[in-house]
């Protein structure tokens, strides 16, 4: 637990399920007020709000398309009107789908880039503008992936978006460091979330994924939520421009484990 997070205000995009929900609920445990954004899953967002309140925080849900300027701004306006401020902005919303690159349509490319990268820009810009106007030493946390580092065939648009998130985050971290504004990424590996439910329900695919994780297990959403709470807190006050990989060692070239090669 981080005492300095108590009474602070956060926006979490894509907060209706998976990593976004876990982060939002963890913030609730820290005594924070959370704006839970969702795109289509209203019931999921309502469940997240209830879990936050049960954990001791305050929360509200808002539908918005974070790939649009109007959608991103509505989240900031909600944080200010409902909770009186903004301290932490988590750009978590994202999507993925599989296509061989020679079969990838421009529409599918744009859909993933708009959500995963443009949405991060728009949300970060809203947070930066508020922090600059108020002089607040705020924190921006962007959800990247191990695939900012590891190529992922048949997911070229997804990997490109996460590589973009990494460099965008490093750039704004450098640009605003002297204003006390921090920006960092979290890079999850294989995590047991709804987006992976179908894959992990297949024993063969599950074991194939586990074999790529040196720690030998699939991660939990709470592992990522713990990283987000730390990055948001004053314990990480001297940390900016990094990607904190939460991946059980997946980015450490697991094929070389046990001295192979």
TrEMBL record:
CDD domains the record matches: GlcDH_SDR_c (cd05358)
Gene3D superfamilies linked: NAD(P)-binding Rossmann-like Domain
Keyword annotations of the record: Oxidoreductase
Oxidoreductase is among the record's keywords: yes
InterPro entries in the cross-refs: NAD(P)-bd_dom_sf, Sc_DH/Rdtase_CS, SDR_fam
Family: Belongs to the short-chain dehydrogenases/reductases (SDR) family.
Name of this protein: Glucose-1-dehydrogenase
Organism for this UniProt entry: Raoultibacter timonensis
Gene: gdh
């Amino acid at each position: 637990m981080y005492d300095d997070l108590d009474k602070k205000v956060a926006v979490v995009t894509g907060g209706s399920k998976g990593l976004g929900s876990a982060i939002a609920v963890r913030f609730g445990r820290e005594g924070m007020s959370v704006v839970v954004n969702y795109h289509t899953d209203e019931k999921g967002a309502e469940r997240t709000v209830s879990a936050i309140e049960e954990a001791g925080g305050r929360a509200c849900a808002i539908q918005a398309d974070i790939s649009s300027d109007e959608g991103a701004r509505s989240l900031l306006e909600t944080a200010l009107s409902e909770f009186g401020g903004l301290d932490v902005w988590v750009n978590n919303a994202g999507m993925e789908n599989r296509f061989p690159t020679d079969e990838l349509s421009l529409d599918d490319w744009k859909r993933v880039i708009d959500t995963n990268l443009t949405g991060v820009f728009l949300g970060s810009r809203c947070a930066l503008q508020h922090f600059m106007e108020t002089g607040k030493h705020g924190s921006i946390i962007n959800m990247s992936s191990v695939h900012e580092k590891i190529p992922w065939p048949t997911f070229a648009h997804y990997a490109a978006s996460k590589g973009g998130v990494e460099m965008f985050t490093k750039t704004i971290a450098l640009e605003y460091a002297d204003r006390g504004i921090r920006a960092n990424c979290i890079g999850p590996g294989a995590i047991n979330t709804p987006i992976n439910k179908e894959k992990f329900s297949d024993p063969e695919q599950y074991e194939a994924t586990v074999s790529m994780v040196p720690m030998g297990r699939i991660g939990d959403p709470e592992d990522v939520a713990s990283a987000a709470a730390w990055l948001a807190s004053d314990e990480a006050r001297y940390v900016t421009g990094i990607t904190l990989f939460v991946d059980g060692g997946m980015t450490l070239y697991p094929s070389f484990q046990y001295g192979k090669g």
